[in-house]
């Protein structure tokens, strides 16, 4: 099978099939396909998924081959399939640099941009995950969207969405990454605003698009900075301009295999994430690296809904539920995580940036978890949980160790299954409830929707991180990675204090600057160069350098290290708290929806029943995945030879295979302590939720009233104060005083008392608004703050511009416009309507002309 | 013959004809008469053109006059059709009637005083009535008397 | 040399010439004829016109021998008198007739110049066809009496304005003609006037050099013919619509009743 379809064909076909489906559905959907549109799209997605599996097989086979033949255990592999050249500008930029890291790059650089696809472990994993979830979501949507007016339009958008996402993960340079980054944004805009007649949906689509603009702006700036720093935007190494191709088998279409790259005679342009650069660890550090990384992070925050750009994701719930599942699980929000993982070498160059990533992730995780506690919209709870889980992933990526980054990607992978499952489950509930999603309006649905109930239950367990479901493994790895990072940093501090004491996690010592020359193992290859059809492919085997890398931590002082260690330690606690919150709000939503007394909203009067098989089959498949994904890919629990096959697989991606990150690789182990703590937390949260929502409701009401300062607020209300003026004796005094013409005195006194009371009560009134419950319920007023800080000034500016435009600019234009009529009015009396008068005027004019001519001639 | 004298005389007469036509056009109010005055101006031009043609011993002038005659014929056809139509609409040949086409806020021209009809200006000789007097359509009568 | 003194000098000469006085008298006579209210004033105007004609005739140059000069003067007099009468006649019918007389004079002038074809064509086309058409339309539109607007001309200020304008035209013409007076010599008759094959030459010239123009003029005439018919038919239809569907009378006239007509007829 793997021989039948070569790797390059797989890689090209995976995005091509959804694109083809999109075109076919867009072209023929309205007239021919109509209610059959989903066959095309599901077929294409399934085909893509099968091809992705094939790609995975190809890669695992190659990895295995490399392990057998090579001496080194870890080896990077990437295959670039160039399709055609998109843009080429000779000598577009001359790099001048004094930084030793970019010294080999100094000189003129062409702007060379290929449309090229790349197969490496990271891409293959993302492709498989995206196409798998997309296929199931498309199948579910076929049932969910049945009868919608825009049925074919929906599937055309979805196919385009998946195409954009598959391209996003498989392109080979930053510009194309940006292009498909935007394409994903556009598709999400189209899908969130799919029911554009509904004002909230249109607004949500707009919001998603605009908030993403902010992130994309940062991303674009990051690209400019990368270009001006490294002189290229390609991920991979390419032949330098004018260099003869070393041999037909070595370089094709200007792309250099690492075998050739290792030859000192071959002059190459080192790609930003190219192997020559990674192995030499030639990344600019300091402020430039920090700027690049922070701008990239801003872009990732926009796409992956991290604070402060997370506000679009919960609103995106206005779109059809399968779209939510797609966005949350597979196609949109994972882009940011993928990008940060892909750019790991860049981030490794800047520990500050990594710390920022971790902090942003941690803060977002906590914030979203707190908000999710009190939401009543089922989909909104899930949306905030996605934001929270993405925060986890960023936290893991920010840990900056091999374990952390693989853990983040693993969580991305498992999260895709159970979040898709939860969203599709919510869609199933919505379907049954007649599009009602407010959990206060329904309840006790477990009898009506048995399959949804059980699959949702599995999804909740997975999300809550209850062992041995998928969420447990990935979340546990993240928490452990953060914990380890803090531990390692603390150890480093200790080591600096006592230099003789060395131990695991030691990265100090002499920084070793190592060139490309001679440090790379040449790896023999057989049949790696293939030519199939017209597509030329280049295969690159990457060997691992022998020597250790200089650690980016060397640049940090001891106090900084200590501070970093404490921050990571704090993040570890944040992660644990968030784990508690996650389990709590997940089961709160679960109990509110499926337990308690049975309530069915009037909208769903006739059809509150289980969804058709078309919809519940994907749920079952996903729930199986949600149960098994963790166990199947994380074998650290094994007594003998613990391994992590997922991490082991994606470790072959060049970004993770070499350089600083590879140096942080430690043997896989199962952190029993961390696992124990987190599962204990998850279970306790589960039990508390069970007690609060299945037990007596009085406790929770009482707690809520305490948190709301209800008693204090009731007695210190302004209205309560106003009522005092009607108290009998006060009124009597006032009447007496008025009779003695001293009414002003009592009024003054009363007003003074009122003022005092108001001043005293203000904090309490504020506190009522800002009580924990309210804060959570109103999403910490973030939307309102954004409205005040961003939207309102812009609107004011808009209003000012409008006034200027309307009255000043238009005024001038109108004044100019009014001038000709005024001038014309001067001539108007000539229009007498008497033909003879016109004739007379003509004669006189003619006379004047002739007379002038005569005078002219006479002179 | 004295060619330059010839030219002088002809141009003088052509100019007089042109000027008379011009005066007539500007002074008379009957549309048909105005049109005749335009034709008279054309005649003045024609006379000059023929004179120039002879003076320069060139056919061009005469050719132009030929075309003037042709164009005048075409013009007469169209103009008379238009005048007839206007007459159908307004019931009068008075050019002043169409001063409604002036700008909105302009004063209308009003005849203050019309001189009395002079007997000697009677155009049609009256015939002695003979036979039975034909019955006249009152509408027609009404309409005609307005002309 | 500045132009103004030259011009002033020319006008100075002009003011002393009989031509100028003839023009002024003519203008006065026209003024009397246009605005004269009484019969006596009109007669006076006619007398003045005669005098001005005499003065103009006196300024004419000798075209050759006396006999031809007399013939020329006669023909010119017919033309100018006809034109003047046409302009001043109160009745439009008389205008048309006097115009025809003026045209006959013009035809005579053409013949005198040796432009035989044009003379004949003027009589046939103009006097014969066009003027008759005018008369026909006049009869159609105005079969009885004469309208007040024929009795009055434009308001008093317009008549002098017109006269001054026309006088200025004449002045310019004459000023430019002045140079011609100086030349006084007998020259041979030009070929186009003395040719015995006048028609043949005219025809060959016409069709040799102006063929396209001839075709265009033919087309123009055709278009004008169709256009005239179309206008009349269209006008009749729209008149019928605007009168609320009043049926055209058997005579082809539409009774302009109702208020749909501009200005109304009452």
Short description:
The complex is a heterotrimer of chains A (859), B (147) and C (266). Chain A has 859 residues and is mostly helical. Helices cover 66% and strands 6% of the residues of chain A.
Write up what this structure looks like.
The complex is a heterotrimer of chains A (859), B (147) and C (266). With 859 residues, chain A is mainly α. Chain A contains 32 helices and 9 strands. In chain A, the strands form 4 sheets. In chain A, strands 2-1-9 form a 3-stranded antiparallel β-sheet. In chain A, strands 3-6 form a two-stranded antiparallel sheet. Chain B has a domain of 93 residues: Helix Hairpins (Orthogonal Bundle). Chain B has 4 helices and no strands. Helices cover 61% and strands 0% of the residues of chain B. The mean pLDDT of chain B is 80. Chain B is elongated. With 266 residues, chain C is mostly helical. Chain C has a domain of 50 residues. In chain C, helix 2 runs antiparallel to helix 3 and helix 5 runs antiparallel to helix 6. The longest helix of chain C is centred in the C-terminal third of the chain and has 32 residues. In chain C, 33% of the residues are buried. Chains in contact: A-B, A-C, B-C. At the B-C interface, helix 1, helix 2, helix 3 and helix 4 of B face helix 3, helix 4, helix 5, helix 6 and helix 7 of C.
The CATH architecture of one domain in chain B would be Orthogonal Bundle
Outline type of chain B: elongated
Please count the helical segments of chain A.
32
Provide the spatial order of strands within the biggest beta sheet of chain A: 2-1-9
Low-confidence stretches of chain B: none
Find the structural class of chain B using helix and strand composition. Answer: mainly alpha
Helix content of chain A: 55-70%
Task: Outline the fold blueprint.
The complex is a heterotrimer of chains A (859), B (147) and C (266).
Chain A: H1 7-33, H2 37-69, E1 76-95, E2 107-120, H3 121-144, H4 151-170, H5 174-192, H6 199-230, E3 238-239, E4 251-252, E5 255-256, H7 258-262, E6 268-269, H8 275-280, H9 286-304, H10 312-315, H11 321-331, H12 334-342, H13 344-348, H14 351-372, H15 378-399, H16 402-432, H17 450-464, H18 470-497, E7 531-532, E8 535-536, E9 538-542, H19 558-594, H20 613-633, H21 645-650, H22 654-657, H23 659-663, H24 672-694, H25 697-707, H26 710-715, H27 718-724, H28 728-739, H29 743-769, H30 772-777, H31 782-827, H32 835-858
Antiparallel strand pairs in A: 1-2, 1-9, 3-6, 4-5, 7-8
Chain B: H1 3-27, H2 31-56, H3 60-90, H4 138-145
Helix pairs in contact in B: 1-2, 2-3
Chain C: H1 3-16, H2 18-35, H3 39-59, H4 66-88, H5 92-112, H6 116-141, H7 148-151, H8 158-182, H9 191-194, H10 198-209, H11 211-242
Helix pairs in contact in C: 2-3, 2-8, 4-5, 5-6
């Amino acid at each position: 099978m793997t021989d039948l379809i070569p790797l390059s064909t797989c890689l090209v076909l995976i995005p091509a099939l959804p694109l083809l489906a999109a075109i076919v559905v867009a072209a023929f959907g309205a007239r021919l396909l109509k209610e059959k549109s989903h066959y095309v799209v599901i077929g294409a997605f399934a085909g893509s998924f099968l091809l992705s599996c094939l790609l995975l097989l190809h890669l695992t086979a190659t990895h295995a081959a490399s392990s057998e033949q090579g001496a080194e255990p870890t080896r990077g592999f990437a295959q670039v399939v160039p399709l055609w050249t998109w843009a080429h500008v000779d000598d577009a930029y001359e790099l001048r640099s004094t930084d030793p890291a970019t010294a080999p790059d100094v000189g003129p650089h062409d702007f060379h941009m290929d449309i090229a696809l790349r197969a490496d472990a990271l891409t293959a994993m993302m492709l498989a995950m995206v196409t798998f979830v997309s296929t199931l979501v498309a199948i579910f949507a076929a049932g969910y969207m049945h009868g919608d007016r825009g049925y074919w339009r929906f599937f055309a958008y979805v196919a385009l969405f998946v195409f954009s996402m598959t391209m996003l993960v498989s392109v080979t340079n930053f510009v194309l990454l940006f292009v498909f980054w935007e394409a994903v944004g556009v598709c999400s805009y189209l899908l969130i605003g799919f029911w554009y007649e509904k004002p909230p949906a249109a607004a949500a689509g707009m919001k998603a698009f605009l908030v993403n603009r902010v992130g994309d702006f940062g991303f674009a700036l990051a690209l400019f900075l990368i270009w001006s720093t490294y002189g290229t935007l390609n991920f991979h190494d390419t032949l330098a301009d004018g260099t003869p191709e070393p041999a037909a088998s070595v370089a094709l279409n200007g792309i250099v295999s690492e075998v050739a790259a290792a030859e000192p005679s071959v002059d190459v342009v080192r790609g930003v994430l190219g192997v020559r650069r990674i192995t030499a660890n030639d990344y600019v550090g300091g402020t430039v690296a920090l700027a690049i990384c922070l701008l990239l992070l801003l872009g990732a925050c926009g796409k992956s809904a991290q604070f402060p750009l997370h506000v679009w994701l919960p609103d995106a719930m206005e779109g059809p539920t399968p779209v939510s599942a797609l966005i949350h699980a597979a196609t949109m929000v994972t882009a940011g995580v993928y990008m940060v993982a892909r750019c790991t070498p860049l981030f490794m160059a800047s520990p500050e940036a990594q710390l920022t990533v971790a902090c942003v992730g941690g803060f977002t995780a906590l914030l979203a978890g707190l908000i999710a506690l009190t939401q009543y919209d089922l989909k909104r709870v899930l949306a905030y949980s996605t934001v929270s889980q993405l925060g986890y992933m960023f936290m893991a990526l920010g840990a900056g160790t091999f374990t952390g980054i693989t853990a983040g990607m693993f969580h991305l992978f498992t999260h895709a299954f159970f979040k898709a499952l939860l969203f599709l489950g919510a869609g199933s509930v919505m379907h049954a409830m007649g599009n009602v999603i407010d959990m206060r309006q329904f309840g006790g649905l477990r009898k009506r929707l048995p399959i949804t109930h059980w699959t949702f239950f599995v999804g909740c367990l997975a999300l809550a991180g209850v062992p041995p479901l998928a969420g447990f493994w990935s979340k546990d790895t993240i928490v452990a990675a953060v914990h380890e990072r803090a531990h390692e940093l603390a150890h480093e501090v200790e080591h600096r204090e006592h230099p003789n004491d060395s131990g695991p996690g030691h990265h100090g010592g002499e920084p070793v600057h190592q060139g490309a020359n001679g440090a790379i193992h040449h790896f023999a290859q057989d049949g790696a160069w293939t030519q199939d059809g017209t597509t030329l492919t280049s295969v690159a085997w990457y060997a691992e350098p022998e020597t250790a890398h200089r650690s980016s931590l060397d640049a940090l002082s001891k106090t900084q290290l200590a501070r970093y260690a404490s921050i990571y330690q704090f993040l570890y606690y944040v992660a644990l708290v968030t784990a508690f919150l996650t389990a709590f709000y997940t089961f709160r939503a679960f109990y509110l929806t499926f337990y308690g007394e049975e309530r069915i909203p009037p909208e769903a009067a006739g059809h509150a029943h289980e969804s058709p098989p078309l919809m519940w089959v994907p749920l079952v498949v996903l729930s199986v995945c949600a149960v098994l994904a963790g166990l199947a890919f994380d074998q650290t629990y094994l007594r003998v030879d613990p391994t992590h096959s997922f991490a082991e697989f994606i470790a072959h991606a060049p970004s993770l295979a070499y350089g600083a990150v590879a140096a942080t690789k430690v043997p896989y182990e199962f952190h029993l302590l961390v696992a124990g703590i987190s599962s204990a937390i998850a279970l306790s949260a589960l039990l508390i939720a069970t007690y609060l929502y299945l037990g007596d409701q009085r406790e929770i009401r009482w707690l809520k009233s305490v948190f709301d300062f209800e008693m204090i607020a009731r007695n210190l209300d302004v209205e309560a104060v106003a009522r005092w003026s009607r108290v009998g004796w006060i009124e009597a005094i006032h009447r007496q005083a008025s009779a003695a013409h001293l009414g002003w005195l009592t009024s003054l006194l009363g007003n003074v008392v009122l003022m005092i009371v108001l001043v005293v009560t203000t904090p309490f009134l504020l506190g009522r608004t800002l009580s924990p419950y309210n804060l959570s319920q109103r999403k910490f007023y973030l939307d309102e703050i954004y409205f005040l800080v961003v939207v309102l000034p812009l609107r004011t500016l808009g209003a000012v511009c409008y006034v200027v435009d309307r009255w000043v600019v238009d005024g001038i234009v109108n004044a100019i416009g009014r001038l000709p009529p005024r001038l014309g009015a001067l001539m108007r009396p000539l229009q007498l309507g008497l033909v003879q008068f016109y004739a007379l005027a003509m004669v006189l004019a003619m006379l004047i002309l002739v007379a002038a001519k005569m005078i002219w001639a006479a002179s | 013959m004295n060619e330059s004298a010839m030219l002088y005389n002809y141009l003088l007469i052509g100019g007089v004809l042109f000027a008379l036509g011009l005066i007539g056009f500007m002074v008379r109010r009957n549309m048909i008469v105005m049109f005749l005055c335009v034709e008279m101006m054309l005649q003045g031009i024609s006379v000059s053109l023929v004179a120039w043609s002879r003076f320069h011993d060139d056919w061009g002038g005469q050719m132009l006059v030929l075309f003037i005659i042709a164009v005048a014929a075409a013009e007469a056809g169209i103009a008379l059709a238009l005048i007839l139509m206007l007459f159908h609409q307004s019931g009068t040949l008075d050019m002043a009637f169409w001063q409604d086409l002036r700008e909105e806020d302009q004063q209308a021209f009003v005849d203050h005083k019309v001189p009395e009809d002079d007997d000697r200006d009677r155009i049609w000789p009256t015939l002695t009535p003979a036979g039975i007097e034909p019955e006249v359509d009152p509408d027609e009568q009404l309409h005609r008397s307005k002309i | 040399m500045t132009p103004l003194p030259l011009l002033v000098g020319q006008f100075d000469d002009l003011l002393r010439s009989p031509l100028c006085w003839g023009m002024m008298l003519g203008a006065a006579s026209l003024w009397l004829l246009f605005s004269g209210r009484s019969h006596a004033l009109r007669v006076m105007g006619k007398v003045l016109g005669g005098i001005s004609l005499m003065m103009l005739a006196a300024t004419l140059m000798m075209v050759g021998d006396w006999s031809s000069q007399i013939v020329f003067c006669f023909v010119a007099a017919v033309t100018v008198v006809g034109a003047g009468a046409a302009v001043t006649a109160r009745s439009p019918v008389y205008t048309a007739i006097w115009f025809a007389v003026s045209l006959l004079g013009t035809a005579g002038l053409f013949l005198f110049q040796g432009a035989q074809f044009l003379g004949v064509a003027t009589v046939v086309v103009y006097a014969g066809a066009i003027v008759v058409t005018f008369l026909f339309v006049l009869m159609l539109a105005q079969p009885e009496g004469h309208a007040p607007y024929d009795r009055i001309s434009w308001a008093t200020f317009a008549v002098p304005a017109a006269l001054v304008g026309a006088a200025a035209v004449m002045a310019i013409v004459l000023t430019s003609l002045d140079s011609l007076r100086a030349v006084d010599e007998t020259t041979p008759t030009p070929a186009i006037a003395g040719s015995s094959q006048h028609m043949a030459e005219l025809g060959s010239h016409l069709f040799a050099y102006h063929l396209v123009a001839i075709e265009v003029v033919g087309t123009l005439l055709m278009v004008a013919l169709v256009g005239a018919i179309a206008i009349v038919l269209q006008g009749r239809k729209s008149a019928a619509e605007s009168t609320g569907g009043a049926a055209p009378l058997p005579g082809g006239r539409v009774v302009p009743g109702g208020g749909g007509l501009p200005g109304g007829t009452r």
